[in-house]
Fold:
Amino acid sequence: MTTNTKERMMPGAVIVGAGPGIGRSVARRFAGEGMPVALVSRTGRTLDVEGARGYRADCADEDALRAALDAARADQGVPDVVVYNAAIIRPDTAGEATVRAHLDAWAVNVVGALVTAAHVAPAMAGRGGGTFLVTGGMPEPRREYVSLSLGKSGVRTLVALLDQEYGPSGVHVASVTVAGPVAPGTPFDPDVIAEHYWHLHTQPRDRWEHEILHTGQDAA
Structure:
């Protein structure tokens, strides 16, 4: 494929951490707008998203993650929007999880998002714009979810840092913070939550938001 052909391609969406919940719903929302969609997951499955392509990578494996992002770009060009949705979600109290468990969770919950942004955002900035979104959670820390609370706090800080780095070049960096367990047919239905991602992606620059908190109240 020539460079000119790539430049004519419709900008697509890359979903990192494409599972059967929010990941699939966000992929379907963007695909429904006619955008090509790349799904990066440990299995490489396309989750029944029409027209999507699957790429295999563990988000804690930097080399594999970068390779999957490169493969998606080779197939679809520089993405218009990237969603980092990977997370290790498990209950653990203070002193319960081992150091290794904390490091593994931090690698996926925070560092994977940083690696993804550092790998794709410069090309977005060079093109003059794009959207980088991260799935957040735990708006208030909970003692029974120590590693996740730490990770989601780190995500909030990371979004601020990435906005400082790439926002001036036209890259909209934001998070969707989900304050409850995701399940279809509930106030935390993933299809409802997916609307926030599209809303952030389509915001004009003078009205950019950097966090949307989904409490489930509007969907109740």
In short: The longest helix spans residues 99-127. The beta strands are 13-16, 37-41, 53-56, 81-84, 130-137, 171-178, 211-214. The mean pLDDT is 93.
